Amino acid sequence: MLPGLPDVAELQLLFAQYNWMYFAGEIPSYRIAYNARFSNSAGRITYKPPVIELSPKHLVGKLDELRETLLHEMIHAWLHARKQSPGHTPTFKKKMRELGLRSIYHDLGRATPLNESTKRYIVRCEKCTMELLRKKKPSPNLVCARCRKPLVAFEVVEMRPVELSRAARGRR
Ligand SMILES: [Zn+2]
Ligand SMILES: [Zn+2]
User: Fold this and answer.
1) Ligand 2 mean position to 48 CA, how many Å?
2) CB under 8 Å to 45, separation ≥6 — which residues?
3) CA 107–ligand 1 middle distance (angstroms)
4) pLDDT bracket for residue 116 (50, 70, 90)
5) Deepest in the core among 2, 21, 61, 76, taking most CB within 10 A?
6) What single-letter DSSP state applies at residue 151?
7) How far is the CA of 141 from the centre of ligand 1 (A)?
């Protein structure tokens, strides 16, 4: 791992601490991981399977932004766990303010603004980490064109673009 970044065990610990500090332990366990392939996102959450991914490229040496990105994704996870809409609802924004977070909006790359009720999917090859974004539920029988391994589908995706992190820094 790059210097200036917590290792994955530390991220997992941070997640557990924040869960108790800010969410009364209501978030079920999530795997926290780095994903070096994000080109314009600082973070991403998928609810099924439960994974929060952070971009090492965008967060290296920026512990405040790493913390904010993790907390942002954790608010999504918290709302999802409470069976509330996990989008950027008034409840989401209220929680953000409580935690002192600033930037709000993110969507999937440069696609149309995120419709809170729209599900998105990612299919991913666990061997070569190739990923495809899908708007419709992917067929369960897809295989990686390169590895011929079955692709794993992730449901409901939220991404946090880097631009907003920069804007947040400017306002500091
Ligand atoms: Zn969000
Ligand atoms: Zn593959």
Assistant:
1) 20
2) 30, 51, 52, 53, 73, 76, 77, 157, 158
3) 8
4) very low
5) 76
6) P
7) 30
* DSSP state letter for 112: S
What is the Å distance from ligand 2's center to 124 Cα? 8
CATH ID of 8-170, from 3.30.1360.40, 3.90.190.20, 3.30.2010.10, 3.40.50.620? 3.30.2010.10
Q: Taking a C-beta distance cutoff of 8 angstroms, is the pair 144, 130 a contact?
A: yes
Dihedral Cα 53, 54, 56, 62, nearest 10 deg = -160
Q: Which range is least confidently modeled, 11-15, 57-61, 74-78, 156-160? A: 156-160
**What is the pTM for the complete model shown?**
0.71
Domain regions of the chain by residue span: 8-170
50-97 pLDDT, tens digit per residue, is 999 999 988 888 888 899 899 999 999 999 999 998 888 889 989 988
Q: Which ligand is nearest to the CA of 157?
A: 1
